[in-house]
């Protein structure tokens, strides 16, 4: 799709032994991003860096669809965004509703509790998301300061209904802040921050943004920042305090320097390049490329006679796919066979089910560039499954579900 496509891809040369990293993040990166990441030591006060940082803040607004929200670009991983959100917005005893579709929903709930929140976990059955009627009921049942939704829970490949939740909040509980975990979604799954009414989007550099790990990206609405300003108690954290970071972000955006803690200079250079690549095509084209790629992968899974963990197309992520394995195959049997064919995939991470499924990441340049990664991934998976003794023909009528008739709740 991209004008910057195959020529800037970091595809291993034919015969290269480097396997493709096709897990649901970190992801493969373009050659230009890798080059930007390997710049020599540069002061965080250098005008070249100041310009790059300013551009990153501006471009992030475009990527997520906001004009007025404040991006925070801070050294750390995606988890740091959970801490930022909880430390700044939660006061002890406040109610938080967590829509949990897997491992990462549970982690976000644990993080909220660590900052004193009273958390209600609305858990979906494995592979599904909460019916909106259930969310509406929970929102009406008591006043929640925050509702969280994982746009993609990377443990299951289930797509949260961010727009649906935003609409419900407006209708039933307009003061509740909508916090979205977009770590495995941002720049792959459609999200329109202002139009939908998102308050906080938490993401990270190493997934569909197409960068190395190392940057926690959080975008906070002006409404969320007002809630922070109106706290009764001080923020009991230092590094993650938005009051300390906002002047830094504002300074760099005004192409000036202000110091609080050293920014990760090279990763910010890389992020600036990655964001330019995304925006050169435009986000609608980026989303459409992820949708096309995902449809190919889901069709391949069906052709293998297997089922995705996500129970329907409506609740399936486009950034990744989690696939139930036949009874006879463990993830630990399959993954080395995939790697021998040049593809690093991931096993399961749901407690009690880790061996029963595997996960493929197909976000970032794997989806947006014409590099053949998806062909390599699908061919390797088909061959590795066959080497494990799986026969698509035998499985296809009907595919053996690995879920029990009434699947366990998370
Ligand atoms: C949905 C989701 N949230 C949060 C995280 C945590 O991010 P990190 O591992 O970068 O700290 C991940 C990591 O994969 C994730 O997939």
TrEMBL record:
- Kindly list the cofactors needed: pyridoxal 5'-phosphate
Q: Which residues carry this modification: N6-(pyridoxal phosphate)lysine?
A: 207
Which residues constitute the signal peptide according to the record?
Answer: none
Query: Which residues of this UniProt protein bind substrate?
Result: 359
Gene Ontology molecular function:
alanine-glyoxylate transaminase activity; L-serine-pyruvate transaminase activity
Question: Per the database record, which ranges form the Aminotransferase class V domain?
Answer: 42-348
Q: Which PANTHER family match?
A: ALANINE--GLYOXYLATE AMINOTRANSFERASE 1, AMINOTRANSFERASE CLASS V
Q: What is this protein called?
A: alanine--glyoxylate transaminase
Q: Which organism is it from?
A: Coemansia thaxteri
């Amino acid at each position: 799709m991209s004008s910057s496509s195959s020529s800037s891809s970091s595809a291993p040369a034919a015969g290269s032994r480097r396997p493709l990293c096709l897990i649901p993040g970190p992801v493969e990166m373009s050659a230009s991003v890798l080059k930007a990441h390997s710049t020599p030591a540069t002061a965080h006060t250098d005008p070249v860096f100041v310009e790059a940082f300013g551009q990153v803040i501006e471009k992030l607004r475009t990527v997520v669809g906001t004009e007025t929200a404040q991006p925070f670009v801070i050294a750390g991983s995606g988890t740091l965004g959970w801490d930022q959100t909880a430390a700044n917005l939660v006061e002890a005893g406040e109610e938080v509703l967590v829509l949990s579709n897997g491992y990462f929903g549970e982690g976000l709930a644990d993080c909220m509790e660590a900052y004193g929140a009273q958390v209600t976990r609305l858990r979906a059955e494995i592979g599904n998301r909460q019916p909106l009627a259930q969310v509406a009921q929970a929102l009406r049942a008591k006043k929640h300061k925050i509702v969280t939704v994982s746009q993609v829970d990377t443990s299951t490949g289930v797509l949260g209904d961010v727009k649906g939740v935003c609409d419900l909040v407006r209708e039933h509980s307009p003061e509740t802040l909508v916090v979205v975990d977009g770590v495995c979604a941002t720049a792959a799954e459609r999200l329109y921050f202002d139009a939908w009414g998102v308050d906080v989007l938490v993401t990270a550099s190493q997934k569909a943004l197409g960068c190395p790990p190392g940057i926690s990206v959080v975008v906070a609405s002006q409404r969320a920042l007002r809630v922070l300003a109106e706290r009764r108690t001080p923020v009991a954290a230092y590094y993650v305090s938005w009051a300390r970071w906002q002047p830094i972000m504002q300074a760099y955006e005004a192409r000036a320097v202000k110091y609080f803690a050293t920014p990760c200079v090279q990763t910010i250079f890389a992020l600036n390049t990655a964001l330019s690549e995304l925006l050169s095509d435009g986000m609608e084209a980026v989303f459409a490329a992820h949708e096309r790629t995902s449809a190919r992968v889901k069709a391949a899974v069906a052709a293998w006679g297997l089922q995705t963990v996500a129970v329907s197309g409506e609740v399936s992520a486009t950034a990744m796919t989690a696939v139930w394995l036949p009874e006879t195959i463990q993830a630990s049997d399959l993954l080395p066979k995939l790697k021998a064919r040049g593809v690093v995939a991931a096993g399961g991470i749901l407690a009690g089910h880790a061996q029963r499924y595997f996960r493929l990441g197909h976000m970032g340049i794997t989806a947006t560039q014409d590099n053949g990664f998806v062909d390599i991934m699908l061919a390797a998976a088909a061959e590795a499954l066959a080497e494990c003794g799986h026969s698509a023909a035998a499985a296809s009528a009907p595919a053996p579900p690995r879920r029990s008739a009434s699947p366990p709740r998370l």
